[in-house]
Amino acid sequence: MFGLLNLSWWGYLVAVLIMTQITIFGVTIFLHRCQAHRALDLHPIVSHFFRLWLWMTTGMVTKEWTAIHRKHHAKVETPDDPHSPQVGGLFRVLFRGTELYRKESRNPETMIRYGEGTPDDWMERNVYAYRTRLGITLMFILDLLLFGVPGITIWAIQMAWIPFFAAGVVNGIAHYFGYRNFECADASRNLIPLAMFIGGEELHNNHHTFATSARFSVKWWEFDSGWMVIRLLQFLGLARPKRTPPKALLVHGKTVVDSDTLRAVLTNRFQVLAHYSQRVTLPVLQQEAHRAGDANPSLYARGKTLLVRDVSLVDAAGKQTLDELLSAHQSLQVVYQFRMRLQAIWAKSTASQAELVAALQEWCRQAEEAGIAALRDFVAQLKGYVPAV
């Protein structure tokens, strides 16, 4: 009745946590970071283990998952996004995420365009992709043998884990609620800074900002459990991260905008934009709100979000509020326009390096002459940026 292991009640609980976390790590490390984004290389032993485990615990096909996720990034928050809560509604993605995956997996165009480079060996063609129900059945038998009757409940939890937490919570809630470190052009958010329950996938805004990074944590106070496992595998010679979030170095005393400044700004544009929001936009907004006193406090509360949000994410009502705020305060209008002009510099994809350096130098000159202390201080810091070696 209680299986070969004959565990206590807390033993079954530990078994569930261990087995579901292995599944989560299989998804985030193998399917997500390794296959979909090529952010790291895994030793064949690790890759084959995760493929086998995911076959038995989810029945997911590597090519299908990878292709659908790549399309999600390519078409994020548009009608072509396979699972955007901004388009299809939060509850639809949260509770029917698996159905959305299944529907998109039957789209041959998605598989052809976004599914390249995934495993195509004998096991994949003849077992993992062809006999998906067999793996789930084998896991049911294994749970029953190891845990007895409680194994049925354990198996059911395993089967529900990824559909709810990955397909539902990450794809749904993490595009609706949470905090944002960076203003990338989608609605992704970080659910919590201590990303330990869903393998680091909780840090979704960080991931969408630096999609090809093997590490999802960016701030010093954020914890990515998936990255910790990758580091352990790296120590054992079983993994090799390719990319992590970029960093810029600050050289004190550097007062010239040159090619090094340009490279640092372009590489770290999301961090630069975040610093601009924190050190220019929001301090100026606070000053204006303080001068206004109790006059329309909700306007300034909404402005805290609207002034730093990517324009593509601001709806008609938000644009009207933003226009009202900017028209009432010249200083806010100035810093907002300088923010837009700074973004326009790194959007000049056809400009030469010399032209971009000249554009950045002119932006800094005009910003210094704008008569706003916070803007002048930001320029002083910007000049000190150099690329990390």
Explain the overall architecture.
It is elongated, with a radius of gyration of 24 Å. The strands form three sheets. Strands 1-4 form a two-stranded antiparallel ribbon. Strands 2-3 form a two-stranded parallel sheet. Strands 5-6 form a two-stranded antiparallel ribbon. The protein has two domains: 233 residues, no CATH class; 138 residues, no CATH class. The model has no long low-confidence stretch (mean pLDDT 94). With 389 residues, it is mainly alpha-helical. It contains 18 helices and six strands. Helix 2 crosses helix 8 and helix 16 packs antiparallel against helix 17.
> What is the number of helices?
18
Number of strands: 6
Helix-strand pattern, N to C?
HEHHHHHHHHEHEHEEHHHHHHHE
Mean pLDDT: 94
Helix content: 55-70%
Class per helix and strand makeup:
mainly alpha
Whole-angstrom Rg? 24 Å
Q: What gross morphology would you assign?
A: elongated
Subunit arrangement of the protein: single chain
N→C terminal distance: 60 Å
Total individual domains: 2
Give the SSE map.
Layout: H1 9-36, E1 40-42, H2 44-57, H3 62-74, H4 85-88, H5 90-105, H6 108-114, H7 122-128, H8 132-147, H9 150-172, E2 194-195, H10 204-209, E3 223-224, H11 225-235, E4 239-241, E5 248-250, H12 259-267, H13 269-292, H14 297-306, H15 316-328, H16 330-346, H17 353-368, H18 373-382, E6 385-387
Parallel strand pairs: 2-3
Antiparallel strand pairs: 1-4, 5-6
Helix pairs in contact: 1-2, 1-3, 1-9, 2-8, 3-6, 5-9, 8-9, 13-14, 13-16, 13-18, 14-15, 15-16, 16-17
What features would you highlight for this structure?
389 residues; mainly alpha; two-stranded antiparallel ribbon; two-stranded parallel sheet; 63% helix
